[in-house]
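Ticket #209: bound-state structure for thymidine-5'-phosphate.
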Amino acid sequence: MSEAIKKPVFIAVDGIDGVGKSTQIERLAAHLAGRGHDVIQVRDPGSTPVGARLREILLDSDLDLHRRTEAMLFMASRCEMIEKSIRPALEQGTTVISDRFLLANVVYQSVGGDVTPEQIWELGSLANDDLAPDMTLLLDMPAEAAMKRIEGPGDRMERRGTEYMESVRQSFLSQLHRSSERTVVINADQDPGDVAKDIIRAVDEFLAT
Ligand code: TMP
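RESOLUTION: The complex was predicted; output attached.
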């Protein structure tokens, strides 16, 4: 295969609020582009016209939403993003990096809510028509440190506080193995340059298999 034509991969990057996903995703996208991949980045929730509107509703902490409604709206936004954005890109040979995916739905909406991780995984396989990332990178650090990095009043999830976020973190760690065939925990509580090195090492190892 020529260096210019690369098999597309679908990588999800996730973790609690404040771990620094956005910066790392930019760096990873640049790295993959440098290796000859055509790359797009998507953001869950969002990345489609419907997803952008749902994102506004979902993150607006002044809107009262039942927790099950919240779970379903995140699911709907992702369904739209898969069918309008991710699947067409992969079919055209484009690598996709998604800022969050179904794993986030499982952990954020099950912690302190009335739906179980199992129920959200099941609903997710219907909504996603079984599309899963090839690889999921979990950026991990203690919630207390991550929450200190958040500026401003915080969105619906961030306002639930450090205890909620630490439970989300633990749930991320225990549910991660169900997200993809290849999953890697990255220590996000270090210099961003070192985080980037760990991510690139993990992704390059995966691409070499
Ligand atoms: P972001 O800060 O990564 O853009 O994500 C927006 C917020 O939405 C973040 O607090 C995590 C939360 N979230 C869920 O609660 N459920 C989901 O399914 C997704 C994708 C995100």
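RESOLUTION NOTES: The mean pLDDT is 94.
TICKET STATUS: resolved
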